[in-house]
Amino acid sequence: MARLVMKFGGTSVADLDRIRNVASRVKREVEAGHEVAVVVSAMAGVTNQLVAWCQALSPLHDAREYDAVVATGEEVTSGLTAIALQTLGVDARSWQGWQIPVMTDGAHGKARVERIEGAELIQRMQAGQVPVVCGFQGLGPDNRVTTLGRGGSDLSAVALAAALEADRCDIFTDVDGVYTTDPRIVPKARKLDRIAYEEMLEMASLGAKVLQTRSVELAMKERVRVQVLSSFEDKPGTLVVDEDEIVEKELVSGIAYSRDEAKVTLRHVPDRPGVAAAVFGSLAEAHVNVDMIVQNVSAEGTTDMTFTVGKADLARAMDTLGGKREAIGYAEVTADAGVAKISVVGIGMRSHAGVANTMFQALAGRGINIEVITTSEIKISVLIREDATELAVRALHAAYGLDAS
């Protein structure tokens, strides 16, 4: 017997037939003798509609009321799922975030989970009841409903699994696992049986849409075993686990890409202590996340500084830097939104040489120019022209021997 958390995304609960399918899956686990808690997202498209209504009434709406509106999607799904389970003879009860409670900070729209009181849910599960919990929502310090940001139901599920000391957290979605890259670009992409937390975190942060980045961070911190699998097919998925559970560590586990990048270059920046702090400190105050950073060698007392931001943050970044021109002392700032970031990820890089050279040769062989390079212990990322994204992904997937036979 195991204790499981089963999370179902929006496509998995898109209509009543799919909710019935979810209930059947949950019943199967209950009949196998497992203790089960369920986390559900809003039905597909519902959250987008709720967000659109808020924006239509006021582009600068109150974030607390925004949360009150968008949290309702999950409330509908949890109630319907509980009814579907009861119809199948399964003792089930829906739970909203505030009823458990899922305690968060007060950052409405992107709240962080601080703690979950799981004692009552454990008692009910031990008595044979299935809690159906609203994902995406919690309770802030002012007793207002909060939401956890887009994809937040993944985070809800992992946090609940940690609080319930679950044996596994199963994330049911419209894909059947984690692949070596996007199968829409590379039809020969392989599904991975297992992937380490660190690799999944890198791939999620680099553009892979399978799991929300914050959910992977929490799973790694709390050592929650996560399984990604399909809602629509009965076959094994991909386990996201500690590195120690992976016997054969591949050199490269996957190729990730992101088209949501923009390159910013400051030219002729004074080369003196404190300039970098002035540049990136002002961007941090404006809540602009900076990723890849490269600074040229100083020449005649000045240097060029290049970095990337998300395309959605580009206008804010340029406005912020424009207002700091005199304080920083740069001569010119340019922006380029026609770039993409391609990354090679693998824990096997720690013990193998030549990984970067393989990447550079594969891209050069396709005539793809590299504009920026950054590395970490298990990742190499390059910035290239956006129109070469698919060619680069296919070339690298083949170069590292990731194509399925």
Distance between the termini: 37 Å
Helix content: 25-40%
Q: Report the major sheet.
A: 8 strands, mixed
Shape: globular
Structural class: alpha/beta
Rg on CA atoms, Å: 23 Å
Give the averaged pLDDT, no decimals. 92
Subunit arrangement of the protein: single chain
Enumerate the strands of the largest sheet in spatial order, edge to edge or round the barrel. 3-6-2-1-9-11-12-10
Q: Tally of extended strands?
A: 18
User: Per DSSP, what share of the residues sits in E-state strands of 2 or more residues?
Assistant: 25-35%
**What is the overall number of helices?**
13
Name the poorly predicted regions. Answer: none
Explain what this protein looks like in three dimensions.
By secondary structure, this protein is an alpha/beta fold. About 35% of the residues lie in helices and about 25% in strands. It has helices at about 15-30, 45-55, 65-70, 70-85, 120-125, 150-165, 195-205, 215-220, 275-285, 315-325, 325-330, 355-365, 390-400; strands at about 5-10, 35-40, 90-95, 100-105, 115, 130-135, 135-140, 145, 170-175, 195, 225-230, 240, 255-270, 290-295, 300-310, 330-345, 370-375, 380-385. It has an eight-stranded mixed beta sheet with strand order 3-6-2-1-9-11-12-10, with helices on both faces. Strands 14-15-13-16-18-17 form a six-stranded antiparallel beta sheet. A hairpin with an 8-residue loop joins strand 4 (about 100-105) and strand 5. Helix 7 packs antiparallel against helix 8 (about 215-220). The longest helix has 16 residues, at about 15-30. The protein is globular and about 75 Å long. The mean pLDDT is about 90.
